[in-house]
Amino acid sequence: MGRGVTAVDPRLLRHARAARGYLVTTVLLGLLIAGLIVAQAALLAHLLSAAAFGSGTSVLAIPLALLLGVVLARAAAAFGGELAALRAAARIKSQLRRELIAHSFRLGPTWLSRQQSGRIAAVATQGLDDLDPYFARYLPQLVLSVIVPITVIVAVSVTDWISGLIVAITLPLIPLFGALVGLHTKARTRRQWRLLSQLSGHFLDVVAGLPTLKVFGRAKAQEQVIADVTCAHRSAAMATMRVAFLSALVLELSATLATALVAVETGLRLLYGHMSYPAALLVLLLTPEAYLPLRAAATQYHASAGGAAAVESVFRVLETPLPESAAARPVHAPAAALADLSRDTLRLNQVSVRYSDRQLPALNRLSLTINPGELIVLNGPSGSGKTTLLRLLLRFIEPSEGTICATGADLATIPVEPWRAQIGWVPQHPRLFPRSVADNIALGRPGADRATVERAATLAGAAEFIESLPHGYDTRLEGPAGQLSTGERQQVALARAFVRDASMLLLDEPTAHLAPAAVAAIRRVLVGPMSGCTIILATHQDWGTAVASQVITMHGGGCSQRVPEPVPVTGSAARG
What we know:
The protein contains 17 helices and ten strands. The chain is α/β, with parallel strands linked by helices.
């Protein structure tokens, strides 16, 4: 079991700088509120004793005005603390969300493919929203539960040392019972959050794969799985609430008995004349204030436990080590460590890649030379290493053995962002976003004008069906591009890669769902307008030896190569 989020978690201070100033403000306001509590009790005891002994209205006017001012000041301090807490929580949530998303991007698609996207979404949204009670109520109450009891014990001891001693002895019972209950609550809350994350992730995956489930008749089975997880989450939530109610009863009973003990001994000594009336009133008014913050802190702990559990999930992601390719590199890299894919030759020297969940290597001592402007076709069955080779060139993963060199420089020494800026990539399952078709294509080159977008769509063979959409290029793609077929989504993704004007194109099964005529058109584009670009194409289809400069057949992590005879290419040999 990982570390939990404690009252002042150093990880929270490290990742959320806004929390530091807020904690300082909370401590200062706690000191102010503690002083106001003692002043309020002293003024109220003075007013009650003066009224009991028949003092006139003129005598009571000034203390009454002071009491009203103290009450208003205490309310203002509490309101200001909660307002500052909510603003700090908003900044902290925003900062943690940005860091969570940025770190997930840096971890790369290989890491993300092993996660449930629904769980990460649940943590980034509802999970972090649960931090509001943690900052707005629990942390301020925790500060008060330290400052106020100490202040009250000192004030009571100065007035009556016997009562002060009783309060000091009985006070630790509240945090003791609270800690015992809190350990049980923590385990329950973690289980509740784990089930909620599982439900969110599984539900999102089921919705995304609903068409496939319906085709294979597995929708009913998934309905039962979701029902079982929902039932388990409901049971965990009810169990957590039951513990919260029972813990409130235990803490209230402990505080009530301790207060009653002070009241009994104070009343007896007052009855026998061993204690003055104003002193007895002050002790009786202050004693409940010593226990109240501790009881309230225990209550607020239950309200904030969900946010604490979610933040632990956030830290688990933030503390996941980055792959070597995404690790921090010097911003000002030497010129020798930069690469230009339009003119540099890539060499893979005895490269092997092993995944932790596989016994056999995905690539085994692969050697390959990639010259600028080549069109290389990767053939082979699923699992033979084609996608792994593309991931290596994208630097989503690093070689387990061997090196990749760009004109003599080890790829590991080259900054990753300038490297990827020269590459266009079309994965097997491209993602389109709920934006217009033009915006989805322009993601390849932010700021590209409409003419450039339309030209890229024409090259990808997508212009005809895009123009037939209700609003053409301005048609918004809802959901997972619901109004487009699988082949049309691939063509939009190809257009996105073409608009990038990249020096190297990595295409993973780009024509798997296209009609034969569309495949032939893409072939003509790759050997014609895009022929100046280095293209590496992974496919199950037979592209023929006349198209490629190298045909590499992948098998069991290794490969066999064929270098076809050069065939003249008709049409434009220059890139548009």
